[in-house]
Every structure is written in structure tokens, then in C-alpha cells.
Inverse folding.
């Protein structure tokens, strides 16, 4: 087998020296790799079909929402708004953990109520004794 590998490498090197690979589409650009190396092959096919049909798993949607919230958080300087965004991020993160089947499995409604409660408390940050509830 090593002889065959050496022959293939030799022919590839000769073709590259002649410039046969110079005008290939996408030359110089990174290859579009999907991060599914750890996904079993039988699941990859189903994921690819759903992806091509435009469907996105709930976990991916939540990760996108978390990324968008993080971007918004980085652009905001108002402390109350930052706290509300962080509360929403916490609720999304907890919901994402429940989708993963992680150690903390909480109903989505419970996560939403926690985020609302934190947002209410943040609204009272400027009021005296706001943190002593």
C-alpha cells in the first residue's frame, strides 16, 4: 500500500508543478467544512436532508439567539438594559441545557419566568433597597 501512496503523491506533485491545480474553483479559499465529524453517519444523512430543506434544530436556533444577544450586550452601555439582556441570555442558556439533556432540566416556561423576574428586579436597580427582596 505504501508503494501506491508514494505513486499517488508523486503524480499529484507533478500535476501541481505543471500548474494543473491553479484554476480550480475556490482556489485559495478555505474549504466549506461542516462540523459533523462526531455525528454518526446515519444521523448525518438525516441532518443534511433537514438542513437542505431549511429546517434548523431548536438548539441551533437558541445558539443563534444567544449569539445575537451577546452582540447586543456588547453594544449596550446602560446597566439596566445589560442586566435585562443577561437575564434573557440566562433563560436561553438554561433552555439550551435542557435540550442537550444536561444536568439541569427545567421547563421552558420556568426559564421564561426566571428571566422575567430578573428583568423586574433589574428595573428596580436605581430604587433604594432594590437588592433586598
Amino acid at each position: 500500500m505504501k508503494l501506491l501512496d508514494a505513486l499517488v503523491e508523486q503524480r499529484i506533485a507533478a500535476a501541481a508543478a505543471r500548474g494543473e491545480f491553479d484554476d480550480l474553483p475556490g482556489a485559495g479559499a478555505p474549504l466549506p467544512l461542516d462540523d459533523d465529524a462526531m455525528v454518526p453517519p446515519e444521523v448525518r444523512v438525516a441532518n443534511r436532508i433537514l438542513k437542505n430543506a431549511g429546517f434548523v434544530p431548536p438548539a441551533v436556533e437558541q445558539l443563534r439567539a444567544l449569539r445575537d444577544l451577546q452582540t447586543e450586550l456588547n453594544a449596550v452601555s446602560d446597566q439596566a438594559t445589560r442586566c435585562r439582556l443577561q437575564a434573557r441570555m440566562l433563560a436561553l442558556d438554561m433552555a439550551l441545557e435542557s435540550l442537550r439533556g444536561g444536568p439541569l432540566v427545567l421547563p421552558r416556561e420556568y426559564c421564561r419566568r426566571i428571566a422575567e423576574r430578573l428583568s423586574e428586579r433589574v428595573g428596580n436597580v436605581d430604587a433604594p433597597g432594590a437588592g433586598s427582596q
User: Anything to note?
Assistant: The CA atoms of residues 5 and 11 lie 10 Å apart. The radius of gyration is 25 Å. The longest helix spans residues 79-100.
